[in-house]
Protein: SulP family sulfate permease
Organism: Primorskyibacter sedentarius
Amino acid sequence: MDTRQLTANLSLRRPWYGAVNRVTLKDDAVAGLTNAAIVLPQGVAFAVIAGLPPEYGLFTAMITPVIAAIWGTSMIMVSGPTTAISAVMFATLSQMAPAGTPIYIHMALTLTIMVGLFQLLAGVFRLGGLISFISHSVMVGFTTAAALLIGASQIGGALGIQTEGGGGVVERIWQVAEHLEGFNPVALLIAGGTLATIVIVQKINRKLPAYLFALAVGAGLGEILGARTLGIAMFESLPSVIPSLSIPETSVSQVVSLLPSAVSIAFIGLLEAISIGRAFAMRRHERYDSNQEIIGQGLSNAVAGFFQAYAGSGSFTRSALNAESGAKTPMSAIFAAGFLLIMLLVLAPFVDRIPKPAMAGIIIFVAWRLINFAEIRHLIANSRSETLILLLTFVTGVATELENAIFVGVVASLAVFLHRSARPHVAVLAPVMYHGRRLMRGVPFHNLEQCPQVLVQRLEGPLFFGSVEHIEREFRRYETAYPGRDYKVLALKGLGKIDLSGVDLLMAEALRARKNGGDFHLVVAYMETVRALDEMGLFDVLGRDHVHPTKAEAVAAVVAQVRDSICRDCTIRAFSECGDKPAPEGADKQKPPPEIEQIYRF
């Protein structure tokens, strides 16, 4: 990236500023107020998931969205604490220090700064397209595993049972089972009442702040039932509602141990943000720059770590609510942060009245909603490869540390992509008439007759060292299926990549056809590909006159070469060019191709 581009990416003057006016400010303020109401309990819940004191989730909900909105590119996306990142942070840091302790908090803030720096590097090197290239199945499998881990971590709290904490899904459930003698029915009643409130409120109207209502119901049940006197754990008062500048205390060895997790969380955050931002941009017909979004996310996390906030990303829930509430510009996210601060100044004195089982009920609901059952069913029903990626990611997340799931999923996605790239489609074609036009279509699909001397084929996909073996195998298969056709036309369609191995295969095919008494012609539509083939020496063997821009030109050239002795006995007359060749006595010299009514048959 040049200096001017980097300066533009970091400039405070963003293109969306011009869209702000009195009307949009009013709409954005209303959307911001709605967003602040929903993120207040969410911020507390996500902080608990991350193993941090509640105020850290609220600080994240204030700082991250403002910076991401200013430097990002999405008009509607709201950033902040998210379930997936919170779960990974807890799974990572709880193995290094007890949750909520000063060392744990300092490591969380250090990890956040590292995440931001890695994301900034990704933005500087413009890796937006590469990050969004990873299979969606990875995130589905990862979030499903994270949901189980989150749910398992809250079972003890919902039952009023104190456990050691830490470990995976099975270990956490086993810890609860070992301490069932500590079960408190009142805790379960509070958690169940909170959970039921969310479900009921969302059924009434999804725009209502269901989490806020649920938190109020949980606190009310705690007061009515005397939760504090019955040994139910309560939240501690917030020491501050305004984030302050602080530099986390950490050591070099801790930084080194946090590197893999920082890369993993940075990747998860960018994948979430880019997916959400692109989805809303397409829905609203707006421009979206994934590389600029990466800059915004990186800056938001790098700065957040110095202001008592932990790693965040785009929030689908808050972004969807933002859109439904009529937001017009990123000012809505800035308004939401301001309104959240005002709410905290009013409500902070009442935080110590919230029973922890109430928050456990909310978090269990969040975990349940994190599992996309419809998408899982869709993947299983329609794609074996995507199902494999999903299962590998999910099983890894459940059986090992959660952050490992992302790396396994990414490797599986790349393996599937390489497998598909190494198996491009090779088709055999023949001419048909469709609505008065001559087209080339698949021989087996339309049950077409072919010229007895010419084999027209189409290669769709890359021709490189990884795909050469499969393509050659397909060539031999079609030679066996359609023998005697020594004159060949190969059309290269969608040729994303070709290397010397691919060129060597084309040379070998040309020499093979000529050795058998035939010839080999190539159809290449793009001049860039022609230049690449020329530079790699193909034309020294094939000849420049054997490369054509269209299939029609290639067919005309090859039909002029075929043996007249075979044409004299041929009644198929597959090509219009056959009119210039000898024909059987009394037969049409130029028989039109067969007429088809439809190209696709579903």
Remarks:
- The chain is about 60% helix and 5% strand.
- The two ends are 47 Å apart (CA to CA).
- The chain has a mean pLDDT of 87.
- Residues 252-284 form the longest helix (33 residues).
